[in-house]
Design goal:
This protein has one domain. 70% of the residues lie in helices and 0% in strands.
Length: 125
């Protein structure tokens, strides 16, 4: 079954927003990553790779706007639990992460374009 552009984007956007909701309300809001130590770097690598993979899979330029929607999704979360200090609101932290998430998704989009360009060049020769 071949999916069209709208179906692929809709499914990808719902998956991205769903995983983001799990991340915000299941991990960050509960303060799970507060004292993660070396696990932090593993999680950072997985989240980075996930954003690039998402951009590669969804193939639509509108995907770069989805991290902005996650900021709105994080507003009801309020402040995460913390034992060490008074944390800032989660939406503010997510607003900072948008500066990295948008370029990572764009890298995935660029990689997809490169792969499709190479395939087209291989077919034409």
């Amino acid at each position: 079954m071949r999916w069209g552009r709208v179906e692929r984007f809709t499914i990808g956007a719902l998956a991205y927003l769903g995983l983001s909701a799990v991340w915000i309300y299941g991990v960050l809001d509960r303060g799970v990553m507060e004292n993660a130590g070396s696990l932090f770097w593993i999680v950072l690598a997985v989240v980075t790779a996930a954003h690039v993979a998402f951009g590669f899979a969804i193939r639509e330029r509108a995907a770069v706007l989805l991290p902005i929607a996650v900021v709105l999704l994080a507003i009801p979360a309020g402040y995460p639990e913390s034992r060490y200090s008074e944390p800032g609101p989660l939406w503010f932290g997510q607003m900072f992460l948008v500066l990295f998430e948008i370029p990572l998704i764009a890298v995935g989009l660029g990689l997809r374009s490169l792969v499709e360009w190479r395939r087209a060049a291989a077919r034409s020769s």
